[in-house]
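tool_call predict_complex ligand=magnesium ion
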Amino acid sequence: MIRLATVSPCYNEELVLESSVGRLTSLFNELIAKGKISADSMMVFVNDGSRDRTWQIIEEQHTKNKFVRGINLTRNVGHQNAIMAGMMTARQWADAVITIDADLQDDLNAIEKMIDAFDEGSEIVYGVKVQRKADPLLKRVSAEAFYKLQASMGVESIMNHADFRLMSRRALDLLSQYGERNLYLRGLIPLLGLQTAQVDDVISERTAGVSKYTLSKMLTLALNGITSFSTKPLYFIVYMGMFFLFISFCIGIYVIHALVAGTAVPGWASLILSIWLVGGFILISIGTVGVYIGRIYSEVKGRPLYNIKEVI
Ligand code: UDP
Ligand code: MG
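tool_result ok
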């Protein structure tokens, strides 16, 4: 029987928090009765610098409800960092941690399936959105485009998986070795290389409050998702420079032809050729500098070179 901790980041969630605690509590009681989780399991709420009564509610629930624990951050650090704070703290308390948004839009039925998969040996279990009917159209379309763009940039991530997942304590210990500052957990976790499983996650609507993921927060996340895992954009500059050189070669042929045929205006040939040639060299030079910066970037992140599965 595992000791489970759920971790939920909360940013201005006063409207939904009490009902979320209630729903998780009945789920916990059910899972304890079934013998799937131990009675000292817990739900951890991370207050991400809320400006409303969120922390007071967490404190209140903590005194009333034995499952509830709270972590209060000094200021708003964003969803990814708040999750990280919760996971890194809760890994000392539990065998496995499930991250789930405080609004419980994710499928609570999936939690039992995650625990079953964990019992069968998976160290990481991803909740994968099977239908996003409850998400607004714009969000669905932009998410889809984003996953595709990411894949084309060579970032390994699970399609339609947000941050609803189970991780074992071992997986969290490995994750703690990754020292990066720009967190994009969905890209990082597949790098751990542990045994994984997936369960279906049927998204429902927010029962109260509004989305805290503003457009600018989503864009930041999307940019992080690509720039933290791919240096391909830097190589594009080099390729562009090569393309420019190719064009200047074609223009060179055309210029020779014009000179031979006598149709060239004086001064034109040297001008047009040098524009493309110099442009090409400049792009290649910038790109080369960029590629070295890309190397420095990956060194600076200091990611572990390997994770050991077992030693016998
Ligand atoms: N959240 C957070 N810090 C932030 C923004 C959001 O901890 O700066 C939390 C929020 O309280 C919620 C989760 O992240 O538990 C997901 O946010 P939300 O439900 O608003 O996003 P959506 O479901 O619309 O993508
Ligand atoms: Mg939500």
